[in-house]
Amino acid sequence: MAKTATDRPPETASDWTIPQDWVSYTHQEHAVWDRLYARQTELLQDRACAAFRQGVEHLRLSDKGIPNFAELSERLSKRTGWRVVAVPGLVPDEVFFEHLANRRFVAGRFIRKPEQLDYLQEPDVFHDLFGHVPLLSDPVFADYMQAYGEGGLKALRLNALEKLARLYWYTVEFGLIAEPEGLRLYGAGILSSFGESRFALEDSSPNRLRFNLMRVMRTRYRIDDYQQGYFVIDDFDELLRQTRDADFTPLYRELEKLPDLAPDAVIPSDQIVSRGSQQHAYRGKFQ
Ligand code: PHE
Ligand code: CO
């Protein structure tokens, strides 16, 4: 997320979408997708949440090559009404939220180079599709994402985007979920990352704390390395009820009075799932 407002490139439509131009992908580009897909699927077998694995199956993401957005959207919209549209990369916040509020997920169409398999600064089509789209076939998560888009438009009006963006970060991008078999991944930033999909579940460095809406909206995050803390939900119903069905206006007002928390903070009111050692050598600074 956190797309910066720039001038709309001339080749984009008024809603900033562009054709995916699927026929232009080269063999090499499809091969990069296939390598990423194979590697990640293996890693995620018993790490991804059940809804993600079902989504991969329903959407037939195991078909070879970079998915065609139009075909993918046909399958996805039959389940939850969501579609996937291509954008040049950066879109203004308002455009991003407007798409979400209308059940359109905006995705980059470019794919990383073979030498960037492990790390990439900007989200590419592998992160956007493999990471985000499977969960959009889950009816409850699908509703959450739409409500988030509506909430984003409201946060823009209330000047509260910095707080709301943290909710996206710690759920949609880096969320963990407690399933009967144990902790599982549902955040797209983890699911599409070779290193972090193990780190987030198994490393002793990060804190893992029970999800709490106000706590999350107070917490800064790292954009340049693995997270120092993750928040754990019980199920998507809990997430949906606490967010869609709450009026954030008074919460934003209260947040203005509360100090922000560091990414590695643990406070007395936290419900600790596992307390981290923070021994991982983090690079850079946090935002
Ligand atoms: N209900 C929130 C509000 O009143 C909007 C929201 C919905 C935010 C879902 C996040 C997720 O602003
Ligand atoms: Co993302």
Notes on the structure:
By secondary structure, the chain is α/β, with parallel strands linked by helices. 43% of the residues lie in helices and 10% in strands. The protein contains twelve helices and seven strands. The chain has helices spanning 27-44, 50-58, 69-80, 93-101, 125-132, 139-157, 161-173, 188-191, 196-202, 213-217, 236-244, 248-257; strands spanning 83-87, 104-108, 176-179, 182-185, 207-210, 229-233, 272-274. The strands form two sheets. The chain has a five-stranded mixed beta sheet with strand order 4-3-6-5-7. Helix 6 (139-157) runs antiparallel to helix 7 (161-173) and helix 6 packs parallel to helix 11 (236-244). The model has no long low-confidence stretch (mean pLDDT 95). Residues 123, 127, 131-132, 173, 188-189 line the site of cobalt (II) ion.
